[in-house]
# Entry
Amino acid sequence: MSEGGAMRDQWYPVGMTKQLTAQGRDTMLMGEPIRVALAGGAPSVTDGTGRALPVIDRFGHVWTSLGQPEKDLFTIPEVDQPGRRLVDVGVCRVRCSPLRAVENFLDIAHFPFVHTDILGSEPHTEVARYEVEIRDDVDEVWATKVKFFQPQAAKSAEGGITTDYMYRVCAPTCSVLYKTCPPKPGEWDVIALFVQPLTETLCDVWPYMALYDDDAEMTDLIHFQQMIFVQDRSVLENQLPALLPLDPGREIPTRADMTSIAYRRWLKRHGFTYGAQLVAA
# Structure
C-alpha cells in the first residue's frame, strides 16, 4: 500500500461521468489500483481488494478518495450560472509530480515563452505586482489583482487584451482560474485543473471549463485547451527535481512566484507531501 499521508483523505478526479460504462475502467490513485464503473445507473469506485470507495459526481467528473475525507468536495458556484457552457476537456497524462502540474498552472511568467502569441508574447513579459493570501476561513490559496497581456485570451477572442486573472487553489491537486470573459464583460470565464495523482511522478490531468461563449464549436473549445496543456506538458516532464521542493532554499523565487510560494507553504502546513520533496538534496 502506498503512503499518502494527509493526502489520502482528499478527493480526486478519476474519470469523466459521461464516459462511464458498466464494464468500467481500471486506473490508479496514489499508487493503488482502482476500478471506476457505472453500477445501477450511478458511479462506483472500488480499490484493488474490491472495497467500495466514497464517490462524488460533480463538475462532469467522478471523484473518490482512498481515505476518509473530513469535508465535502469544493464547489465552483459559477458552474451553476445559466448560460455557461460546461466543457469536459478530456484527460492528458503527464510524467510529473501532481503538485508540479498544479504549480505550473499557477505560473503566469511562462506564458510568453511556452504559449507564444496565444497566452503571451514578447516583449510583454513582465508580471505586475499582484496579491496572494491563504484564506483561513475557506482554507484555500488565492491570488488576486493579476493582470497580463495576452494576444489571444480565449478561443473566441480577437486581438490582444490585458487580461484580469484570479487563481484559487481549493485542494492539493486542484486549482481554479478566473479570467476576463471577452464576450461578457463583468463576468469571469472559469478554467479548472483537476489532477489525479497516479503515482508521485505520474498524473492524469482533467481540465474543465465553464465559459460564456455562444460562438465557438464545442470541439474547437476542447482542442484549444488541449493545445495549451500539451505545450505545458513538455515543460513539466523536464522539470528537475521531479518532486516539488517544499524547502524554500531549494529554488530561487522571484516576484512572479508569489502564488507558488504560498501554495508550497500551504502544502507543507497541512502535510500534503505526496509528490513533494521535503528536504533539499
